[in-house]
């Protein structure tokens, strides 16, 4: 049993759910697997596409592999719905492979949190769309998306 806390804590309000989503986006945009993995419970369960991840250690390994493949990764998440200790998000991210082929990946996630605000369940559905580099919409320096950069709805995504 861990005493770690990851505010904001459930039950979520519109304000705290929105904040939780942005904090998750910021973490994933850091592309720091060890840092990001700390947002998940020690016994977290994921379904990511057709891959199943069990526990924080496997989550960190998954993220290391992901960002080794998905280069120049930039992500935008948007709150879709929330209730109690659950949040649903939609998102898109852009990346390229080691051959220079660009993609925009679209997805939806369902999240469930424990009382300490750590994610215990993450269910992700993702589709990859090949794009030309000229079609990219996410043009900030690697890292946190600037506050004045448009979100998904603003970009028509």
Question: How does this structure look, described?
Answer:
There is one protein chain. This protein has about 160 residues and is α+β, with helices and mostly antiparallel strands. The chain has one domain (about 15-135): Roll (Nuclear Transport Factor 2, Chain: A). The chain is about 25% helix and about 40% strand. A six-stranded mixed β-sheet has the order 2-1-6-5-4-3. Strand 5 and strand 6 form a beta hairpin. The longest helix is centred in the N-terminal third of the chain and has 17 residues, at about 15-30. It is globular and about 45 Å long.
Short descriptors:
157 residues, alpha+beta, 6-stranded mixed beta sheet, 3 helices, 6 strands, Nuclear Transport Factor 2, Chain: A
Q: Approximately what portion of the residues adopt beta-strand conformation?
A: 35-45%
What general outline do the C-alpha atoms trace? globular
Largest sheet report: 6 strands, mixed
Termini separation: 40 Å
User: What's the count of strands?
Assistant: 6
Low-confidence blocks of residues: none
Number of domains: 1
Task: Please render the helix and strand layout as text.
Layout: H1 14-30, H2 33-37, E1 40-48, E2 51-54, H3 56-69, E3 71-83, E4 86-96, E5 102-113, E6 119-131
Summarize the structure.
By secondary structure, the chain is of the alpha+beta class. The chain has helices at residues 14-30, 33-37, 56-69, and strands at residues 40-48, 51-54, 71-83, 86-96, 102-113, 119-131. 23% of the residues lie in helices and 39% in strands.
